[in-house]
Amino acid sequence: MKALFVLTKREFASYFMTPVAWIFLMIFVSLSGLLTFYAGDFFGRGQADLQSFFLFHPWLYVFLIPAVSMRMWAEERRSGTIEMLMTLPVSTGELVLGKFLAAWAFVGIALILTLPMWLTVNYLGDPDNGVILMSYLASFLIAGTFLSLGSCVSACTKSQIIAFVSAMMASLLLTFLGSDALINLFSGVATEKVMKLFQSFGFLIHFLSLTRGVLDVRDLLFFISFSGVFLFATVIVLDHKKAV
Amino acid sequence: MITLENVTRKFGSFVAVDNLSMTVPKGQVLGFLGPNGAGKTTTMRMISGFLTPSAGKITVCGYDVAEDPVEVKRHIGYMPEVASSYGDMTVLSFLNFITEARGLFGSAKEKAVEKVIADISLSNVLYQPIDTLSKGYKRRVGLAQALVHDPAVLILDEPTEGLDPNQKREIRTLIRDLQKDKSIIISTHVLEEVEAMCSRAVIIDKGKIVLDDTPRALISLSETHQTLFVLIASYQRERAQTVFNEMAQITVTDVKQESDEAFLFTLIPKGRESVTADVVEALRRQDIKILDMFIEKGRLEEVFYAFTSPDRELKDPNA
Q1: Domains assigned to chain B
Q2: How confident is the model at residue A196 (pLDDT cuts 50, 70, 90)?
Q3: Number of compact structural domains in chain A
Q4: How far is the C-alpha of B50 from the C-alpha of B23, rounded, in Å?
């Protein structure tokens, strides 16, 4: 446990040693704000809630989370520091979890920096703060799932660029799985049952149901188990590919 | 204490380490030699738990690397050949990180870090990012992270590479000091280093051990081992030549005029034994004055070449 904390602490600090971290925070906070006001028509809706704010989070994550996760393992493998890291007396699982928790905490900071949005709606009206809290939780969860996916992709390559693009494409696909556009595209080809199955794997559906304030344990489990699977896959990939 | 039993490692169809067995007891410094690609780094990576063997068994301090990798790693200090530290961290924060990751906290951590900083002389660069350090200092930081927890087993992959002669000397002294209660494996290309700090030298080639002995014994395999150089005054040259010709146990391979007054004879013993006493005695009996004399101990380099060069099969079918 102590080792896990040490690893997480170092990884977390390492984010702030590169400009990527500051750029990420800046872009996330400003884009999430801009999208809410312009694309989400925050004022026009005339509602005291943050629906139009959270609606865009998965799409922001699709592009921004891979920028956080690309470095995780690809850089360790490219520079060779993975050899030093993996001869420390800690298990591969602890290493994977340490890096993941650090990245997740970092994204958590980005979310905390958006709290002025919450203050704004509370100043302007009387929103349901329970729903907002749930939405923040949902956003944090989906970010974690994207990160675990990115961690796995990053472990597969020595190139950060490849890690970035692949993670983005995979995230995009998983987000789209639940969208109407994809359903319509395949409706002629696949049976309804297959489509339903696909849809149940879509990130967006589970996310939206949480942001509406419906606390369904299945949605929570969906994101948690997805993250678990990707992190476990990261361990397997690392043990298999670390020296190649 | 390190034991390797019939260890093999393959990468695809390429066999990097081929059925290798050896034991390194406590107190031994093993110099690991071999051409690039011979399997040195692969072997060291397997001992340190970074790579798993395709076949065979490795134990470190009684723990099986395959079954109990974390416990093995606890007892090993490992310095990889490349990138043994995080470049964006300062020396101090990096050493603190490694020490904590190795399970030392509070005053135990501070003591360990302080000691290693003093031992490796890093106090000048503590607050510098490792990326900005010279190559020599980077190697030293790599060595420091391997030593900070005072491990029973040290695996150092080319520890003195890129260091200047003074730094090399410091590292050698340090390793000699560490030797008595540790098992140490050092890979190196600097052969004089093996003579200077190792109690055992193992030469591997194509994943197999080709020679395993003390550095001194290996040197004696050198072609020039026990070659005698004798300096004789010019006016006694003819008589000396006759004396040497009469001696059955030596061959004169070279006579060279060193100056107006002196000639240098190169004598190679026909056997592998020293002929120094015989030569001195024979010359004294004839009243021939020896102006100077020295004995070639042989060179590890020659042995290394003889046993690992690609064309060795042509030269020596028994090798």
Answers
A1: 2-219 (3.40.50.300), 227-296 (3.30.70.980)
A2: confident
A3: 1
A4: 19
